[in-house]
């Protein structure tokens, strides 16, 4: 396996481990894993098509996740005043609380892994990941 593929696989594995550790906490918040990612991108991406593009998910999948998030009252659809044919997405206060609680759970789980690194290694990891983004 090439270095790039190995690094990608390790990154994906860490993400998967953290998400699996938090699955029960997310479920207690009435949130599925993929719904968490959709919910987390509502504020920077107010329109479903933008959301699908940013998350690299099919529009049909995003529609299903959004339908669930609206039903749970985490997200609200509003008519866009600039274009009455479009609906924009709004994170509700309940959605904000849920997103914050889910993010805290994920952060806590990831923090357990980060404690294995020295402060300098953590700073370097953050610097390198930021550079890749």
UniProtKB/TrEMBL annotation:
Pfam families: MarR_2. Residues 1-133 form the HTH marR-type domain. It comes from the Bacteria. This is MarR family transcriptional regulator. It comes from Pantoea trifolii. The lineage of its organism: Bacteria, Pseudomonadati, Pseudomonadota, Gammaproteobacteria, Enterobacterales.
